[in-house]
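Quick one, probably user error.
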């Protein structure tokens, strides 16, 4: 909360969504004397996507930003991104930046003392490119890093409540079908990886990828290289948990979609690739 309320851009509302927590979140929020704060408690726990949708339903401003309990906005985040909006084409509906993450490195190794810069600058989204195709391969949008125009997407609820992980990636794919995205490589957020972090739960991540495959069948039908990479990710997960039949099913579908991935699939079958591709997801 402090990293939001102390921003140099002060004309904001901070909506704190209590996702039916067993802790006394309301007492903590009420202890902060700031009229810009609105406290909202959900009756039932719905997860991150549902909490964000609830916050969206209460938002009154023209721009939307998100903050999680384990991240900190850097000073000047909002002002920097609002200034970017004023200097880029009006058809751009989202501006995103980078995050410095403590608790893991860029090779997805976790532990104390490890630091990552994500997403890595080399894969930067560029205006005028096929951003949808890019995002189908690699998620470049961590929600805490971004600022969105409220009308950037027509859906009243932005996030898929059935996706318990990778919901930001699924949202990014839909977002790119409605608007352009500007990516700045300067960091705007500090992130911290905890032991219970969703981003470390491979099973939930895989369920998230399966939701993306299901919800984007039409888009992926003509982008078989990207679909093949998603199927490979799912097959790799089943390889690591010892479910060989499911692994073979998904890897065979990936090879059918894009035969040139035969070497990548072969290396998985030989047991040489146990880590996911390091540049997905962004957080």
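Nope, works fine. Designed sequence:
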């Amino acid at each position: 909360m402090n990293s939001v309320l102390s921003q140099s851009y002060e004309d904001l509302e901070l909506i704190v969504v209590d996702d039916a927590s067993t802790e006394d979140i309301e007492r903590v929020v009420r202890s902060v004397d700031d009229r810009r704060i609105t406290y909202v408690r959900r009756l039932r726990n719905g997860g991150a996507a549902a909490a964000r949708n609830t916050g969206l339903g209460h938002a009154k401003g023209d721009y939307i930003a998100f903050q999680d309990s384990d991240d900190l906005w850097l000073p000047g985040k909002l002002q920097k991104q609002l200034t970017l909006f004023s200097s880029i084409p009006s058809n751009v509906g989202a501006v995103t930046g980078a995050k410095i993450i403590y608790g893991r490195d860029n090779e997805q190794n976790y532990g104390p003392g490890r630091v990552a810069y994500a997403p890595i600058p080399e894969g930067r989204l560029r205006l005028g490119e096929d951003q949808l195709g890019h995002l189908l391969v690699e998620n470049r949008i961590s929600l805490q890093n971004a600022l969105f125009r409220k009308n950037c997407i027509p859906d009243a609820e932005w996030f898929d409540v059935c996706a318990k992980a990778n919901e930001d990636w699924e949202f990014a794919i839909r977002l790119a079908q409605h608007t352009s995205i500007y990516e700045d490589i300067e960091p705007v957020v500090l992130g911290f990886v905890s032991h219970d972090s969703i981003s470390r739960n491979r099973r939930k991540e895989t369920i998230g990828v399966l939701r993306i495959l299901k919800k984007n069948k039409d888009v992926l039908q003509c982008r078989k290289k990207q679909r093949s990479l998603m199927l490979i990710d799912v097959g790799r997960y089943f390889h690591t948990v010892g479910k060989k039949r499911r692994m073979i099913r998904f890897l065979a579908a990936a090879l059918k979609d894009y035969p040139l991935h035969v070497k990548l699939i072969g290396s998985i079958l030989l047991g040489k690739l146990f880590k996911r591709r390091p540049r997905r997801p962004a957080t």
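Confidence is low (pLDDT under 50) at residues 273-283.
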